[in-house]
Amino acid sequence: MKNQKIIDMLNEQLNRELFSAYFYTAMEAYFESLNLKGFAHFFMVQTKEELDHARIFFNYINKIGGRVYLKSLNEPKNEYDSPTEVFELALKHEQFITSSIHEIAKMALEEKDLTTYSFLKWFIDEQAEEEETMDNILRKLKFIKEDPSGLLFLDKELSMRVYVQPAILQNE
Ligand code: OFO
Prior knowledge:
Helices cover 74% and strands 0% of the residues. By secondary structure, it is mainly alpha-helical.
């Protein structure tokens, strides 16, 4: 049965995922401006993942008979003081997205919409991973205190990040 309250929350989440992609593209641009190509690559992959998340919500809203509405995106922060600041903000943003998804999951349970609750489980796990990833890099940045050789080493590590499309979107 169609539950408009849930559909509205899913739609809001879809827009948040699109904003995430926009935010991370701004971070990619910042790292490009510093010629830290590995960090830029990391955020390019992150952007693709966010667009995947938005697509998964898009598909699900349609599947349950809802209507997708796109909203305007706020301007993301474009200037940063340091790579550490970028990761502090990326971690904070992921924590916000995690709580946003948890709110929908709680509402789905309250409304006895177990199909949506089950759909959201993938995102709950994914968010735990996203927070861990951002936090790991942030801790490394704090450890090296942004020493140039440490930064270049981390830049090389981040250049290896591989984009993998989620199984749910394969064979679309
Ligand atoms: Fe979509 O996980 Fe980040 O925001």
